[in-house]
Amino acid sequence: MRYRLITVALLSFGAACLAPVATAASRPQAPGNGVCQWGGTPAAPTGTVTFSRGLTNNPSPYPISFVATGPAQGAPCASTVTYKGELVAGSSCLVQQFEGTVEGVPGVTRFYGPGVTPNVAEVLWNGAGKVVGADTPTVANQNLLQQVLADPTICQSPGGYTRGKFSSIISLFANSGT
Fold first, then answer.
1. What is the CA radius of gyration of the chain?
2. Which residues, in sequence order, are CB contacts of 10 under 8 Å at separation 6+?
3. Per-block mean pLDDT, blocks of 10 residues, the chain (178 long)
4. Domain ranges within the chain, ordered by starting residue
């Protein structure tokens, strides 16, 4: 009975998360002029995030390395953008804090962000430490729903959540100097 309740809760959560995705996917995006579409769209995510150890419901006693990479479209992004970073100790499936380096966005060298699943927001810096932009990855998508349906206890298992799909909009400020 307990697992049935958890499964219903996760499915309800997933459905609630996907409603904004459908709305966002229907809006046209205009890559270019400091806006890059990274990792596809919410309706068709092509970005991949991989964690060195699985995220679980329990706060991690250790930092967790990760790589998020995917194709990008729009100036000034290169054809592939990659973030390499670390989630701080204490991160979990529900709450994360992370930072790292950026490859594929000229003038952007680092990122930092908090996340409360499924919402993530990242601030982007240049080499001089000036904030030059932001991005908002979307992890609440059909891929996540399929993973939860296949294994409703993914965040409760010892292996945890290790890999997923995402899409994001990278926005650079007009006078960022990048």
1. 16
2. 148, 152
3. 37 37 36 82 94 94 97 94 97 95 97 89 95 91 83 89 94 73
4. 2-172
